[in-house]
Amino acid sequence: MTIRILIADDQPEVREGMSMLLDAEPDLECIAAVGDGTEAVAVALRERPDVVLMDIRMPGIDGIEATRRITHDTEGEDHAGTSVLVLTTFDQDDILYGALRAGASGFMLKQAAPTSLADAVRQVAEGGSWIDPGVAGKVIDTLRETLPVDASGRPSLDMLSRRELEVLGHMADAPSNTELARRLFVSESTIKTHISRLLMKTGSHDRAQLVALAYRPGLVRP
Q1: Residue 10 domain-assigned?
Q2: What is the per-residue pLDDT for 216?
Q3: What pLDDT shows up at residue 64?
Q4: What is the number of H-type helices and E-type strands within the chain?
Q5: CA distance 160 to 164
Q6: What is the CATH number of the domain that holds 208?
Q7: Whole-Å CA distances, 141 to 55, 144, 146, 203, 209
Q8: pTM of the model
Q9: Contact, 75 vs 163, CB < 8 A?
Q10: How far apart are CA 201 and CA 9, in angstroms?
Q11: In whole angstroms, what is the distance from residue 48 CA to residue 12 CA?
């Protein structure tokens, strides 16, 4: 299966370089390359790529807002598991955490090895997550320090979208991705993407911890 990719970056040479690099892979195809956040959203919602490579600093709306619109404006629809992989030269906490809250499935520094880009794209296209080794420690520290918590000190669910809350609510008695997909009338790829984002947003290590979170606020009843 060919993974369809949209590139969003305000530097033409960066767009061209990434496009050439990815198109050289037999299973990857760059369907479009745009230079601002507003156009990135429009093309993503129209073409439904598997992965959007998203820069942060762009004209129009920035990459964080563009990510939020792409991952949330189609909420409730099965749009083939479109995932956003943020590529940036910046590793500040507000950018990392802002992109995560917006729904990004991965972070990658532009100065990372070019050979890692294709692997990162494949990972997030399959519903997984990718954290650049150069920022992994910072991402973990940021989550620990800034992740919203409730009065008991456990992660708050306020950051989750309606669809993510729905997936979380079904996880207790629908243990497999196949069953979750059947109940919610979406593809397994979309379910993998939702679970990946749930793990990242809540700081959970596995599905068991997600189920525990679901019982706590009363999303499901024993």
Answers
A1: yes
A2: 64
A3: 92
A4: 10, 6
A5: 6
A6: 1.10.10.10
A7: 23, 5, 8, 11, 19
A8: 0.69
A9: yes
A10: 25
A11: 22
What tokens appear for 186 in the block? Answer: 């979406």
Question: What is the token pair recorded at 174?
Answer: 């629908």
Taking the C-alpha atoms of residue 150 and residue 1, their distance in angstroms, rounded to an integer, is 43
Q: Same domain, yes or no, for 22 and 53? A: yes
| Cα gap 171→183, rounded to integer Å | 11
Regions in the chain scoring below 50 on pLDDT: 78-80, 146, 151
For residues 8 and 52, is the Cβ–Cβ distance under 8 A? Answer: yes
- Which of 121, 144, 167 is where one domain is finished? 144
Q: Could you count the other beta carbons within 10 Å of the beta carbon of residue 206?
A: 8
Between CA 70 and CA 105 the distance in angstroms is 12
Number of C-beta neighbours around residue 16 at 10 A: 13
Amino acid identity, position 78: D
H-run or E-run covering 114: helix 114-125
Nearest to 57 by CA among 87, 19, 12, 17: 87
